[in-house]
Amino acid sequence: MDRYAPLRNRTIALVGLMGVGKSSVGRRLANALELPFRDADNEVETAAGRPITEIFAELGEAAFRDGERRVIQRLLEEPPHVLATGGGAFMNDETRALLKEKALVVWLRADLELLARRVGRKDTRPLLKDADPLTVLKAQAEQRYPIYAEAHVALDTGDTAHHVTVSQVIDALTRHLAEQGS
Questions:
Q1: Host domain of residue 62
Q2: Of the candidates 108, 105, 107, 112, which has an alpha carbon nearest to the alpha carbon of residue 142?
Q3: pLDDT at position 123 over 80
Q4: pTM, 2 dp
Q5: Distance (Å, rounded) from C-alpha 21 to C-alpha 30?
Q6: Cβ atoms within 10 Å of 111's Cβ, excluding its own
Q7: pLDDT tens, residue by residue, 57-72
Q8: How far apart are CA 22 and CA 87, in angstroms?
Q9: What total number of domains does the chain contain?
């Protein structure tokens, strides 16, 4: 019997703060489960025909979030896959409701100082433009953690190899489905 079969019945959506590994863990999780992988940020850029940094700069965060919601809604109509969402996607009431209804939502958490080190290496994150990563992450954690807590599964990840986190996600989802009787 294929022990991963129950995990292939619904899209698995990863939520969490920037830098927690939604995309990198998501790619490996999709590979382990033999599912397609989708990155909501990449899909938004493709749909808009420009990078997220430009969308933020020219149209603002509200326009970006609206496009993100529409893209995620479209992706959730596709066959099951692993979906890495943007850090703020789950904050939108409509997007959150869709994700909770149509996907298994996994909140990836990690130490904020670790995340600050990770995201401080790149300058491609609009919310960090001219800001201290740790300060931004602390504010986001305070605002977002109560909402992220609505995910079906919450998983603390550390500075471990991605394959370890993938195994932890699979185990946590398997336990969740068993508890739900699915």
A1: 5-180
A2: 112
A3: no
A4: 0.93
A5: 13
A6: 14
A7: 898 888 888 999 999 9
A8: 9
A9: 1
- pLDDT category at 121 given cuts 50, 70, 90 is low
Q: What is the pLDDT of residue 49?
A: 92
Q: What is the DSSP string of 121-161?
A: T-S--GGGTTS-HHHHHHHHHHHHHHHHTTSSEEEE--S--
Query: Tell me, what CATH number does 89's domain have?
Result: 3.40.50.300
Q: Which of 47, 65, 20 is nearest to 168 (CA)?
A: 20
Average model confidence (pLDDT) for the chain?
90
The answer to whether the beta carbons of residues 106 and 153 sit under 8 Å apart is: yes
Place of tokens 């529409």: 70
Residues 6+ positions from 134 with CB-CB distance below 8 Å: 112, 113, 116
Three-state secondary structure readout of 47-98: HHCCCHHHHHHHHCHHHHHHHHHHHHHHHCCCCCCEEECCCCHHHCHHHHHH
